[in-house]
Amino acid sequence: MANATHLKPAADILAGLEDIDVGDGHSHASNTSDMEDEEHDPAPAFELTVLLHNEPVMLPFYHASATIQDLSDTVAEDLHIPPANQKFLITPKTGLLKPPFKDPSLLLKTLLDEKKKIVLMGATTIEVQELESDIEERKARLGRRRAALQAGRKVKANTNRDWKKVQDEARYTFHTIRPLPYLPNPEKSQRFLERMANDAGIKASMRKHGFSVGLLTEMNPAEHTTHESRTLGLNRNRGEVIELRLRTDAYDGYRDYKVIRKTLCHELAHNVWGDHDRNFWNLCKEIEQEVEKNDWRSGGHSVGKEEFYNSQDEGEDEEADGGGWEGGEYVLGATAGSATDSSGSGEPLSRREIMARAAEERMRKQDEAKRAKDAATQ
Description:
By secondary structure, the chain is of the alpha/beta class. The protein is built from 10 helices and 9 strands.
């Protein structure tokens, strides 16, 4: 009897079972309803295929009245291509469309019915960001490379530059270069004189001996030509002015560069010695050898660093000068004492006489060359 008092009534047990059944039944009904909702999602009204990077992409549209603007919105939302990057190439005939559209109400169903081909051109936001990142990285890399190159050049220039040589070249040089303005093509004579002044051999010799020349100019052949001689150069007041005979006697060209450079060596020696004595000729020969040795553009230092002296251009029947001239005031283009002609009148040759003499000289040389050739063939 005591145990009977602890048993639950049957009605209570049944009630509990009913509660469990009812609960399970309610839960099952709820799951069934959710599955039915999923199965009854609305079907798209139509699907449109676009080509992106040569790959077909199917886009669903749930309204038959969807427009080209709806296509742009769908591409932006589903494919992450912003409207600013979108371009739609529709063929045949429709053409290239991009937002904002001139006709945003263009029906997609019409394009579908007409079997239009739609090609989507555009980059996604991520692709654009990656491209911009690559561009910035490339710019930064190029900037670092440019800065390194500039730094390298600066270091090289500072470590290799011979500042004493720079100072010496500014001091021991031709401080003024000027052609005769009344002769033909003075600009060409200017370039010739500048080339002579910048000759590597000349510059090296001037630095070594400390030569400084106030004015380097050209000589007028007519004022320094007689029947007996032709003056090739003059040095006034030990380097105040040096004149060089650049032009041919007929004014139809320029003399050989090496011959003129050798004349300049002669005139530079007059900066030290006025008379043509043994001291002068020793110094003149020394300057000539220095110029040849240091002229790396046309000889002197070979690839193997061997030095040699080139003694060409020797056979000239002309005078370099009459010695160093001192005193007097120099006027550009004026004569300081013209030589006389063969009649002893004291008159310098005219330009016509110089040209005639030059023509005779050319004919004489041509005849000599012809006779030498004939003799060689016999």
